[in-house]
Every structure is written in C-alpha cells, then in structure tokens.
Amino acid sequence: MPDISFSADRPLPEGVRDLLFADAAAWRDMEAALRRTWAAWGYGEIILPTFEYAHTLATDVGSALDAEMYRFFDRHGRTLALRPDLTIPTARVVGTRLYDQPLPLRIAYAGSVFRYEPPRAGRQHEFTQVGVELIGAGGQAADAEVVALAVAALRAVGLPEFKITLGHVGFFRGLLAALNLPERLAADVRAAVDRKAEAELAALLAEAANLPPLARRAVLDLPQLTGDASVLTRAETTCLNTTMMAALAELRGVARLLEGYGVADAVSYDLAEVRDLDYYTGVTFEGFAPGLGFAVISGGRYDDLIGHFGPPLPAVGWALTLDRVLLAAELQGRRTPEPTADVLLAAHGCPACLAWANEARGRGLRVVLDLEGLDAPALWAQAQARGIPRAVRHDDAVLQVQDAAGVRSLALTDQEEVLRWLNR
C-alpha cells in the first residue's frame, strides 16, 4: 500500500509551498498591478485549463520541457498533462478558436504551471506565470511594444532594480550557417557561447582546422558583444552574411522604438543570447534582478507555433515567474507588511453595532469582530497585539472608542461621528 502517513517535518510534497498572509498579500498586489498594466496597454485576459491532452502541451516545447511535464491518465486511458507553461495553451486557443478574429490579438494570462525539475529558489514544481502574447503582428513595432510592456510590468510590481537583456536568434543562426561546423561541434560551440566560456570556445575552434580567420574571430568576439545599444554597431564587424546583418538591423529598429517608449535605460543587448534556438524565430529577451542568478521574465518572437494549431500567425510575448519577482523584491528590501484590520469591534451582540460595522466596511474600513466578549483593557491589548490601530466597544448605548491618543465615549446613535473618528 502507498505511504499516506503525515510527516510533521515534511507536511507538503517537495516542490510546492504555502504563501501566508504578508506573502499572499504581496502576491495578490503584484497580480493586481500586472492586470492594471496589461489592461492599460489593451491586453485582454484569458483563463486556461490546468491540464490538457499531453500531446497538445508537448507541441514545440523542446525535449527538456517535454521531459519535465507531469503526465497522468484519465479513465479512458488517454494521456493528460498539467500545463508546463501558458504560451502553448494560448497558441491552441488562438489557432482553434480565435484565428478569424481581427488582428492583432493582445492576450494576457496568469496561472500556475507545473514542471518536474529540481526545486530551487524562485522555482518550485508548481509556480505562477503571468504573461502576454501579441499575435498576428510581425516586425519591430510589435517587438518593441512587448519589450516596453515587460519593462512596464516589472516597474508596476515595484521591482526597484532590473535589466532587460535583448538579443536575436538570427545573429547566432547566421554565424552557425557561415561556420558550417559538424553537428556535434556546433552544439558544443552553442553551449560554450551560452555560458560565455571563452577558453572553451577557443579550444573547440581548434578542432575546426579549416575555419577562416574572420569566422574564427567572429566566434571568439561573440561573448564580448554585450552592453548598451552601441554594441549593435560594434557587432557589424563580425557579420559574415546577410542573416547576421538582418538581425542587427531589426535590433537597431527595436532600440530606436524603445527610446521613444522611454525604457532604453532598462534595456541592454547581448548577441550571445542563444537559449531556445529552435523555439524562437527573432528577437529574444530576459529580465534579471540583482541577487538572482536566473531570469525573472523571458520572452521573444515565435512565429512558427500558432501554425501547429491553425493558420500560421506571427507572435511575440513574454512570461514572468511571479515567485521569482516576489523573491527579487524581497532581496531589494521591498517587503509587504502583514495585513491588518482598521478596527477591532466588541459588539456584544448589539444589532445596531453590527449594522454600524457593515456601514464602516462599505466605506472601505476593515472591521474585525471580537468574539470573546473582552472588556475594555483586554480589547485594547488584543488590538495592539494584532497591529490594529483602533478598538471600539459597545457599552449600553455608548461606544467606547480607543486609539493611541486615548479613550473617548461616543453615542451609538451618532454613527457618523464614529465613522469620522475612524477616518481621521
């Protein structure tokens, strides 16, 4: 029989966690800020199912993510899976249900995703993605909008410091095409470029004896092609074909538009960006925050995905990991205080007091009832212990109201005076 015993030192499975009070409040505040932000840019939210057919979710995700999917069977023996991200379900919705709608589509989403990978800081087996997809629009204007919205999103959640790193898969693809390396060596070069391992790159290139000096220099210079927009000019000297030049031209166009959006200071460029080379088709980007060794947001252009589900459409988008953003905000000193009420009320069963409490809540005050029948000193002590700044106690036809300034008595019938006192 399976072990179903409860362990006090491990009450939850590995890779999931509880969010309590202050963290839960910060989480919801961030979600609300992100919803306001994407709505201001004209993006509409969709809500997607937590699980789908496994073969649908495995579409174009790559072997690594496919291996991390949680799969299970329904009663008919069909293989289902928990969603490992939200981009592919969004592509399914567009390809099967929204393909005939006016373009472009501006779509947003938020929800838990599930991956079986080693848990680490900012990433569990279950984590939350919040993202946007701009579908049906190609070109630099669409790319720039999505990057600028990524900056706006990270600013909206109150992350004081971050940097968006922008690249283009066409630059490295063009370089690989010019090198014409054997498949194994090309894969090793790609891995070394991704790690910016310059000594390893030099050793790998030594295996390619017939490589022209200009091509060799282009590879060795690649890890250094990172920085502000001026790096795009420096990179021209390493271009070996029109594919590389076209990638630089697109990035320069996006850079000009980002200046217009007023977010150029939050963006840098990295032409050694080679992640997900098979998935993305153009601009790619990641967002990093000090103190974290992994991205809090990532995205790019993926023009080949929608066509798996319906008519092909260009697409660009991003997803941020809310768990990582929360961790980054905490590391940068942005902590949400424990949520507290405004008033602790001892109504003692008085219907008029309960009606007054409802009126106060309707005006935006947070009113908590004392259910223990505390006397005045105990009520004030309880309020202080819970961080509640005011206590109100019913005593016959009088309300005793207390705060740090002292105690006063107000007539129960003068509810407006009590509410004015509370709103001081």
Low-confidence stretches: none
CA distance, first residue to last residue: 62 Å
CATH topology of the largest domain: BirA Bifunctional Protein, domain 2
CATH architecture of the largest domain: 2-Layer Sandwich
List keywords for this structure.
single chain; 424 residues; alpha+beta; BirA Bifunctional Protein, domain 2; Rossmann fold; 2 domains; nine-stranded mixed beta sheet; five-stranded mixed beta sheet; 15 helices; 21% strand
Q: Could you characterize the architecture of this molecule?
A:
The chain is an alpha+beta fold and 424 residues long. It folds into two domains: 22-331, BirA Bifunctional Protein, domain 2, CATH 3.30.930.10; 343-422, Rossmann fold. The chain is 38% helix and 21% strand. It is built from 15 helices and 17 strands. The protein has helices at 22-40, 54-57, 63-67, 87-98, 140-156, 169-179, 183-195, 198-205, 213-221, 231-234, 242-261, 322-331, 351-362, 376-385, 415-422, and strands at residues 44-45, 51-53, 71-73, 79-82, 105-114, 126-135, 163-168, 226-227, 267-270, 283-288, 297-301, 315-321, 343-346, 367-369, 390-395, 398-403, 406-411. The strands form three sheets. Strands 1-5-6-12-11-10-7-9-8 form a nine-stranded mixed beta sheet, sandwiched between helices. Helix 7 runs antiparallel to helix 8. The longest helix has 20 residues, at 242-261. It starts with 21 loop residues before the first helix and ends with a helix. The mean pLDDT is 91.
